[in-house]
Design brief:
The complex is a heterodimer of chains A (about 325) and B (about 170). With about 325 residues, chain A is α+β, with helices and mostly antiparallel strands. Helix content of chain A is about 40%, strand content about 30%. Chain A has a five-stranded mixed beta sheet with strand order 10-11-7-15-14. Chain B has one domain. In chain B, strands 1, 2, 3, 4 and 5 form a five-stranded antiparallel beta sheet that branches. The radius of gyration of chain B is 19 Å and the shape is flat. The chains are: A alpha+beta (about 325), B alpha+beta (about 170).
Chain lengths: ~325, ~170
């Protein structure tokens, strides 16, 4: 028995390690900045309700700019080496096109029914990533000299926070061709950029993932956020009940109630834990949908309020109260 | 007898300070304010081109110290930005990592230790001119150009569990 015990303990430790959860890995995609696309003519102009608007045409930029492709490839190699293979914008756009065509064509073998798709689903069918690497560079010339100005910003796609950045100009050169200078620019600034990204991730593991949550009320609901509900024997406004729940369930109670009315609440800088334990007792990686889903369960169980969760990627979710 | 005691006391004091100074020399690699380093251009993929200074009793000793400083600075301090070159953060970001992993680093930075395998190129001969400064009678400061395998060094420390991977925890 004495011999078996250490073996059992070791087995338990190994199983625990093997089943250890990891946080959800954010997806990263390099996207040329609007300024880059528009200044080089990779854009589309249209009139929206009498106002002329210019939007970047990423597909054309990817198809016709070899410098851009070179920089993205170089960055992709470096990021893959650091454990974050980049989502490729060009492939993502192509995949979306193909996906749209297939969704149009798919039909059930039995009844000929098509795929159910709401306008929101169609709207969501765009290239997405959790962190956007907003890239901009210029090849400068002065006489025989060339040099590169490089600007890379890491943007959290949901909170719109700039979480990392690196920018600067390379050394002017008369002999090196622009493609070599571009490669040099990437090598020069990626370590600095990754250092800042690392700081962001370390912060995230220390004080939770920063997300945004919006609470709305369906117009068919019989209540609004200023209505009173019984909370532990006290009458409290629904708004306060929700805020207390957020405070109790965020890491170190970190959140900011940015705005609100009787119909909506907007919570920004909400720090949610990276892990949670599901009803079956298993540790799971946490995301905004799961966090908001816990709030929805709490409201349903304690106040009989039904709700609908509208997810906006890894970092934002809306809870719409009143019906499912 | 008294003179014997006095003599022994002097010897004990000398031994004590001798050990202390040896210990100081041993921990120099982790001293975060003892590196004089600057980028000497953008290195090839995965490498860093640096100019680094070292001190020693002879120019040859100072060159050896400079090489060690190049690696130690990359690990503990990072490399500052230079003309056309961005800043490179320290590979190890954990506070007091040098103390926590002292055994590993003592082995890594020992004379002829593994740190040398991350230096691919250096101006090995004692430099002359402005890169060779005689500070005292038997004490030199020299500046050498080195190329270090920065990505390999980072990977080595990540695999040893000393540096955090960028995707650590995901």
């Amino acid at each position: 028995m004495k011999r078996i015990l250490p073996f059992l303990i070791l087995t338990f430790i190994l199983v625990s390690i093997a089943s250890g959860q990891t946080a959800r890995r954010p997806t990263i995609m390099v996207v040329p900045s609007e300024q880059y696309c528009i200044s080089r003519g990779y854009s589309t102009t249209f009139v929206n309700e009498g106002v002329e608007q210019t939007i970047p045409d990423y597909r054309r930029a990817m198809q016709s700019d070899p410098d851009l492709r070179l920089v993205i490839t170089k960055m992709g190699g470096i990021m893959a080496d650091r454990g974050f293979p980049l989502k490729d914008l060009e492939q993502e756009l192509r995949n979306l096109e193909r996906q749209s065509a297939e969704l149009e064509m798919l039909s059930s073998g039995e009844t000929g029914a098509g795929i159910a798709e709401s306008p929101i689903d169609r709207l969501k069918r765009v290239a997405q990533a959790d962190i956007i690497l907003d890239l901009d560079f210029t090849i400068n010339e002065r006489g025989p000299q060339n040099w590169i100005t490089f600007n890379l910003r890491g943007l959290d796609a949901y909170t719109a926070n700039m979480i990392a950045g690196a920018a600067g100009s390379g050394q002017p050169s008369t002999s090196a061709p622009p493609d070599l200078l571009l490669e040099e620019a990437v090598l020069s600034y990626m370590d600095e950029f990754n250092g800042r990204l690392m700081t962001h991730f370390e912060d995230m593991f220390r004080i939770g993932r920063q997300v945004s949550i919006r609470v709305q009320v369906w117009d068919s609901a019989f209540f609004d956020l200023y209505d009173f509900f019984n909370y532990d024997g006290y009458d409290m406004e629904l708004l306060d009940i929700i805020e207390y729940w957020i405070e109790d369930n965020t890491v170190e109670g970190r959140y900011s109630l940015t705005d609100g009315s009787n119909n909506f609440l907007r919570f920004d800088q909400v720090r949610i834990p990276l892990f949670t334990v599901d009803p079956r007792g298993r540790e799971r990686a946490m995301d905004t949908r799961r966090f908001v889903s816990s709030l929805a369960s709490y409201l349903r169980q304690n106040f009989n309020i039904d709700s609908h969760i509208h997810q906006r990627g890894l970092g934002e979710a809306w809870l719409i109260l009143g019906e499912r | 007898m008294k003179s014997k005691v006095f003599f022994l006391t002097i010897v004990a004091v000398l031994i004590f300070f001798g050990c202390a100074s040896r210990r100081e020399r041993q921990i120099l690699y982790s001293s975060s304010y003892n590196y004089e380093i600057q980028p000497a251009g953008v290195g090839q993929d995965g490498t860093k081109a640096l100019k680094v200074w070292g001190y020693g009793r002879s120019p040859e000793d100072a060159v050896k110290t400079a090489k060690r400083n190049a690696i130690a600075a990359s690990i503990f301090q990072g490399i500052p930005a230079g003309p056309g070159v961005g800043r490179t953060p320290a590979i190890v970001t954990e506070h007091n990592a040098d103390v926590k992993h002292a055994e590993y680093f003592d082995e890594f930075f020992k004379v002829g230790g593994r740190y040398l395998s991350f230096i691919t190129l250096s101006t090995d001969g004692p430099p002359s001119g402005r890169d060779r400064v005689r500070i005292e009678r038997n004490y030199y400061k020299v500046g050498v150009y080195v190329q270090i395998m920065h990505d390999n060094l980072r990977r080595e420390l990540e695999n040893a569990g000393i540096a955090r991977r960028l995707d650590h925890g995901f």
